[in-house]
Amino acid sequence: MPIGDYDAVLLLSFGGPEGPEDVLPFLQNVTRGRDIPTERLEVVGSHYQLFGGVSPINGQNRDLVAALEVELAGRGHDVPVAWGNRNWKPYLRDAATELREQGHRRVATLVTSAFSSYSGCRQYHDDIARASTQVTDGPSLDRVRVFWNHPEYLGAVADRMTEALSAVELSKEVRVVFTAHSIPESMAANCDYEQQLHEAAGLVMELGGLNGPHSVVYQSRSGPPQVPWLEPDICDHIGVLAEEGVDQLVVVPIGFVSDHMEVVYDLDTQAAGVAAELGVELVRVSTVGTHPRFVAMLVDLIEELAGLRADRPYLGNAGPRPDMCALDCCPAPQRRPTP
Question: In terms of pTM, does the model score above 0.90?
Answer without folding.
Answer: yes
